[in-house]
Amino acid sequence: MRGMLQKNHETETAFIEEMGVLSQADDLPRIAGRIVGLLVLEEKPASFGRIAEKLGVSRASVSTNTRLLVEAGLVERVAMPGDRQDYYRLAADSHLRMLRRIVGRMERLNAALGAVETSLPPEKAEVKRRLCEFGRFHLATIACLNDLAAATVDRINSLISGSERTS
Amino acid sequence: MRGMLQKNHETETAFIEEMGVLSQADDLPRIAGRIVGLLVLEEKPASFGRIAEKLGVSRASVSTNTRLLVEAGLVERVAMPGDRQDYYRLAADSHLRMLRRIVGRMERLNAALGAVETSLPPEKAEVKRRLCEFGRFHLATIACLNDLAAATVDRINSLISGSERTS
DNA sequence: CGGTTTGTTCAGTATTGACTGAACAAACCG
DNA sequence: CGGTTTGTTCAGTCAATACTGAACAAACCG
Questions:
Q1: Close Cβ partners of B92 (under 8 Å, ≥ 6 residues apart)
Q2: pLDDT of A88-111, one tens digit each?
Q3: Which residues of chain A does B90 touch, with a Cβ-Cβ cutoff of 8 Å?
Q4: Kind and range of the H or E element at B119?
Q5: Could you give the CA distance from residue B7 to residue A149 in angstroms, rounded to a whole number?
Q6: Which nucleotides of D are covered by protein (CB under 7 A)?
Q7: What pTM value is reported for the model?
Q8: C-alpha B69: how far from its chain's center?
Q9: Which residue has its C-alpha nearest to nucleotide D28's C1'?
Q10: Nearest to B167 by CA among B81, B69, B47
Q11: Residue A167: pLDDT band with limits 50, 70, 90
C-alpha cells in the first residue's frame, strides 16, 4: 500500500516535470509549466504558499510565474472567503489558450513568409512555389487547429451548462 | 530599384531570423532554424561553406546543426558531382517532419498523463475527470494533425509524380 | 499604532546550452 | 609524399535567462 502511494507520487512528479519541460517549448519558464502541472492535479484551487512549498521554489518565482500564467489566460486567480492568501486554479479553457498560443506563432511565421514571397523577384519561381506550399501547409494547420478550438469551445459550453462548476 | 532589392533582402533576413526563433520552440538551436530558413529561400542546394558565410557563423556550428537537421529528417545532404563540398537542401517532406515532432511531443505528454490518471485513487474523481478531458483534447489534436499529415503526403506524392524534381 | 502575513520587485547569482576556435581526421591534389 | 580543402569534435567562453534573496509595499490584526 505504501508502495502504491509512493509510485503514485512518482508519476505525479514525473507528470509535473514533463509539463515543465513542455512549457519551455511554449515560451514559458519551466516553473510556469510545473505550476500548471501541479494545478492540473490539485483538487481545489491551490494557495500561493502551497504552490511554493509543493514545488520547492521561492515565493518570488511563484509570484512572477503566476502573473505570467494569468496574463496568458492559462490560470485564474480566485479568492477564498476568509483567507488572505491568493489561490490559483486552471482556467476552464486552458487547453484553448495553449492551442491559441501555437496558432499565434504559426500566424506570425506565416506573415514573414508572405512578406518574403511577395518581395521575391519573379524569376525565382521555384522558391516561390516552395514558399507558397509552405504557406498553404501552415494555413491548413491553422484552420485545422481552429476547428479543433471551436469544437472544444462547444464541449466546454455543454459541460458548464450541464453541471455547474463546483465552486 | 536599389531600394527594392534592399527591402527584399531585409524581408529575407527577417524571415530567416523568424525561423530561428521558431526553432527554439522546437528543441532545436537557433542556428538550426536559420539554416532551414536559408534553405527555404535557396534556389539550389547550398554548400557547407555558403551556409556558414551567408549566416555569418562558424563552420563548427554549421557542422553540428546540419547534423541535427539531417538526423531530424528536415534537411538532406546531397552530393554535387565534381565538388568535394557537402550540399544541403530542404527535405521534400520537411513540413511533415516538423508536424511529426509536434505530435511526438504531445504523445509523450499524453503518456505521462495516462500514467498519472491510472495511478490516481478513485476518490479524486474531479481530478480524474480533468485529466481525462485533457487527454481527450490531446488525442483529438493528435488525430487532427495526423489527418493533416496524411493529406500532405498525398499532395507531395501527386506533386512528385506530376513534375519530376528539378535536380 | 507596532507586528505579522502575504505578495511584488529587482539586483545579483547560477545554470544552461549555444556558439566558437583550435586541434584533428579524411579526402583530394601537386 | 607534403600541402590544401573540407568536415568533425571538443573544451572553453559567452550570453541569455531562470531563479533566488532581500528589501519593499500593502493589507490585516492585536
A1: B156, B160, B165
A2: 999 998 988 988 888 998 899 999
A3: 130
A4: none
A5: 37
A6: 5-10, 17-22, 27-28
A7: 0.88
A8: 8
A9: A84
A10: B81
A11: very low
Q: Are A60 and A73 in contact (CB under 8 A)?
A: no
Which residue has the least CA–C1' distance to nucleotide C26? B84
Q: Is the CB of A60 under 7 A from strand D?
A: yes
H-type alpha helices, B44-93: 48-55, 59-71
DSSP string, A41-58: H-SSPEEHHHHHHHHT--
What are residue B47's DSSP bridge partners? B87
- According to DSSP H, which parts of chain A are helical? 2-24, 30-41, 48-55, 59-71, 94-118, 125-162
What's the Rg (C-alpha) of chain B?
Answer: 21
CA nearest A147 in B: which residue? B144
Q: Which residues pair with A82 in a beta bridge?
A: none
How confident is residue A19, by pLDDT bands cut at 50, 70 and 90? very high
